[in-house]
Design goal:
By secondary structure, the chain is α/β, with parallel strands linked by helices. It has helices at residues 16-21, 41-48, 65-78, 98-106, 129-146, 163-167, 180-190, 213-237, 243-272, 278-304, 311-314; strands spanning 3-9, 29-34, 54-58, 83-86, 112-116, 159-162, 195-199. Helix content is 49%, strand content 11%.
C-alpha cells in the first residue's frame, strides 16, 4: 500500500524540520500544508528540505487545521495514496508511532485510527492537569455526538485513514477549524466506518499551542449538540427504525409529561398552600422513572451500536 503523511504548518517553522527528519523510509509521500503561515513555513521547507518525498502545498488564506488537513487529503487521494496519516508540525507526535497507528488498517481491522494519550497511566505524567480535565469532558461530549463510545481523547490529531473511508466522506462539509477531529468522528459514524484507538505517548516541550480554549468552548458545545441531534435523527429515524427509536420517543414523552404535570401541580399546591393528593404525586414520579428507564435502555443500545465491520472489508480493496 502507498502511505502518505500530511503535516499542517502554522507557526511551527522552527519545529517541523525535526518532525520531517523523523519520518521513516516506509512513507511514500509527505504533504506539508502551509496554512498561510506568517513564518513562511512552506517556503522555508521547500528551500531547505532535500527529501524528494516532500510536497509543499500553500493556502492563500488561513483556513485552520482542518482546512489544511482536507487540502492534504485531496492531494493524497489524487496521488493514489492508500493510507493517509496526519501529524502535527509542533513535534508533539512522535513519528515512531506511525507503524502502530497504521497496523490495524493494514490488517483490515479498521478504517480510521487515532492516537490515545490516556491509555496508559505512565503516558500522563507530563500532561498538564488542565488538559487532563478538559479532554475528559471533551471525550464524553464526543461519545454522545459521534456515537463512538469506544473512543477516548477525541481531540488527538494523530490519525490515519484508509482511502475507501476517506473517499466516502463529504470533505466540503467537515469543520475546518479546531473542531475538525471531533467532526471527523461524527462524519465517519455516518458512513459506519470502524474507528480504533491506538495508545501513544505525547511529547510536551517548549511549543505553544495556537488553540485558545475560551474562544472555542461555546462553538465546541454547539458543534457537539448539533452533531448529536443529527446523528440520533439520522441513525434511528431515517437510516433505520429499531426498538431503540421507540424507547427514545416514549422515554422523552413520559419524562416531559411527568415534569410538566408534576411541576404544574407542585406550583398550584404551593400557591394555594394545600397538600397534593397522593395520586397526583405518584403519577408524575412513575412516568419520569419509566421514561428514564426507557432512555437508559436506548443509550445502552446506542453503545452497542458502534460500527464493527470495516468498510475496506465490506466494500473490497481493489
Amino acid at each position: 500500500m502507498k502511505i502518505g503523511v500530511i503535516i499542517p504548518c502554522y507557526k511551527v517553522s522552527n519545529l517541523v524540520g525535526d518532525v520531517l527528519s523523523g519520518i521513516g523510509s516506509d512513507i511514500d509521500r509527505i504533504y506539508v500544508v502551509d496554512d498561510h503561515c506568517p513564518e513562511n513555513s512552506g517556503h522555508k521547507i521547500a528551500s531547505t528540505c532535500q527529501d524528494p518525498r516532500v510536497h509543499v502545498l500553500y493556502h492563500n488564506e488561513n483556513k485552520g487545521v482542518g482546512g489544511a488537513v482536507i487540502t492534504g487529503y485531496r492531494a493524497a487521494m489524487h496521488d493514489g495514496m492508500d493510507i493517509i496519516i496526519k501529524i502535527d508540525g509542533d513535534g508533539q507526535m512522535d513519528p515512531a508511532h506511525i507503524q502502530s497507528l497504521i497496523r490495524p488498517i493494514l490488517k483490515g481491522r479498521a478504517d480510521y485510527t487515532k492516537g490515545n494519550r490516556f491509555f496508559s497511566y505512565e503516558h500522563l505524567g507530563n500532561m498538564p492537569a488542565i488538559r487532563l480535565i478538559g479532554n475528559g469532558a471533551l471525550s464524553f461530549l464526543s461519545k454522545l455526538s459521534s456515537g463512538y463510545w469506544n473512543i477516548v481523547d477525541p481531540a488527538n490529531g494523530y490519525t490515519a485513514i484508509h482511502r475507501i473511508a476517506l473517499s466516502q466522506l463529504p470533505l466540503e462539509k467537515i469543520s475546518e477549524g479546531y473542531f475538525f477531529e471531533n467532526d471527523m468522528l461524527f462524519r465517519l459514524n455516518s458512513i459506519r466506518a470502524v474507528v480504533i484507538d491506538v495508545p501513544i505517548k505525547a511529547i510536551y516541550g517548549s511549543e505553544k499551542s495556537n488553540l485558545q480554549e475560551h474562544k472555542v468552548l461555546i462553538p465546541f458545545l454547539f458543534g457537539h449538540m448539533k452533531n448529536f441531534l443529527k446523528r440520533i435523527g439520522y441513525t434511528y429515524f431515517v437510516r433505520d427504525v429499531s426498538f431503540a427509536s421507540i424507547e427514545l420517543v416514549f422515554g422523552l414523552l413520559l419524562i416531559t409529561f411527568g415534569m410538566v404535570y408534576g411541576g404544574f401541580h407542585w406550583v398550584t399546591s404551593v400557591m394555594n398552600d394545600i397538600y397534593a393528593p397522593s395520586g397526583v404525586v405518584m403519577l408524575p414520579a412513575l412516568t419520569v422513572i419509566l421514561g428514564m428507564q426507557l432512555l437508559l435502555s436506548a443509550i445502552n443500545y446506542d453503545i452497542q451500536n458502534v460500527p464493527k465491520w470495516p468498510l475496506q472489508m465490506l466494500q473490497g480493496d481493489e
